[in-house]
Amino acid sequence: MKTDLEIAQEAVMEPIAKVAEKLGIPEDALELYGRYKAKISDEYLEQIQEKPDGKLILVTAINPTPAGEGKTTTSVGLGQAFGRLGKKAVVALREPSLGPCFGIKGGAAGGGYAQVVPMEELNLHFTGDFHAITSANNLLAALLDNHIQQGNELQIDSRQIVWKRCMDMNDRVLRNIVVGLGNKMDGFVREDHFVITVASEIMAILCLAEDMKDLKERLSRIIVAYNYAGEPVTAGDLQAVGSMAALLKDAMKPNLIQTLEHTPVLVHGGPFANIAHGCNSVRATRTALKMADYCITEAGFGADLGAEKFFDIKCRMAGLKPDAVVIVATVRALKYNGGVAKPDLGVENLEALEQGIVNLEKHIENLHRYGVPVVVTLNSFVSDTEAEVRFIREFCQDRNCEFSLSEVWEKGGEGGRELAEKVLATLAEKESHFRVLYEDSLPLEDKIRTVATEIYGAGSVTFTPAAKKQLKKLTELGFGQFPVCMAKNQYSLSDNPKRLGRPSGFELTVREVYVSAGAGFVVALTGDVVTMPGLSKKPSAIGIDVNENGVITGLF
After folding, report:
1. Which of 84, 105, 399, 511 is catalytic?
2. Catalytic: 381?
3. What is the tens place of the pLDDT at every residue in 28-83?
4. Is the per-residue pLDDT at 526 higher than 80?
5. C-alpha–C-alpha distance, residues 339 and 501, integer Å
6. For residue 195, how many other CB atoms are within 10 A of its CB?
7. Quick check: helix, strand or coil at residue 90?
8. Which of 26, 74, 236, 237 could form a Cys-Cys staple with 220, CB 3.0–4.6 A?
9. Does 102 qualify as catalytic in the annotation?
10. What are the DSSP calls for 429-446, one per residue?
11. Is 469 labeled as catalytic in the residue annotation?
């Protein structure tokens, strides 16, 4: 059995200009990064704004497990299947982060014969967007500390600095650090922190900004600290906006690459869904809708995180209306939710499947709350039995969901024909009545409670004294109209990653709340979720190498 990397390295890619031709993009609208990657120019993006929108299809999943679900693989395979059916489709994905690539999760290019290529370049430095975001974030941090060093005209209270530095790597020792050690010229001594780049507000801003004007306005609203009077100090106050925007100028342009079957793919932006809003950029999604009849996009982790934020943050802000949702599950993952240990997942176990399928049931119910038609697809494994597949099919059909088996990992687009046909039939027969979960006018505390009780299944929400104080202050500062971005572990519907299946009636604890004023949402941290991950005992990095011919091995 070939590895994903071997399959990707054996692929015969088309020059990216030829891929662009399928969408009617002229070569002079491409900014080439080698033969197989390109950015799309701002001028061309403006030219296509008057074109009608295609259909928007969101791919999401049940809560992730060590057994794997294959959300990106399904998204890519579905795009390839549309191509085989003669449909004009574009896949719109997030860019991978180096942190999980060298950690446990690996890359984010799909798998098997449903991959995005060039796989190694996508998973490593790609076109430099994340480096630009990291640089802009840390430029703002440097300007902030320099302002204090040079006289502190804005009267910044060094005990109330909220802007953190960032790096696109899992490095736990940078979570809490001390800076400014040394002599007087080395700055003032204070506690500081790092977040991973995908958790930076700059990442969220880039993914939500409509154009350069909007980007600069959002950057100017970033709150970096509070002064001695308790008033916000912004990036605009520090006169940091112009230089940050200069660093982000090229990163604002969506990236065009291809699948193994040469389906066009826009890959742009990459906020995590457990600690940020988990969607690719608004610009890329809107561009895909203008370029094709069908835009297939995905949201990070399970539907409780990625899909909820796609609907309640991205669609709310950008005015997007999804036409259908595909939710990915596997027999193995459902049995894992039913209490089966990972080594035993290949054995037929209908009892465990019945116990674990309640996780899928909850996600289906949640998606129906948004008024969007749902298609469940079962990502096929060779260990799946006919009885197990039949049980899941009947379970979904009883809940007003179309069901399809997906074999895209093994067969590429051909293995996604059934799914593509089910999605097309759903688009033709069922109308989307999309609605957000809560209104802007609902108080922040009630927005958090609504997501926790209606989407997660919590019985109650507890706010720490610090969180209550922060909510009160943010409301007084005028941020009460913002949507909420819940930072929660991805493995469970609850804030306890060990509670699998469908926990209910639990108490969800909100320990900290802060505003991303430029992005336009309020972040609520729950449980033990951290914004700078660490590496495992045996990280993926130790298995990655490059030989004397420049061929990379061990990347997945």
Report:
1. 105
2. yes
3. 999 999 999 999 999 999 999 999 999 999 999 999 998 778 999 999 999 999 99
4. yes
5. 9
6. 22
7. strand
8. 236
9. no
10. H-------SS-TTS-HHH
11. no
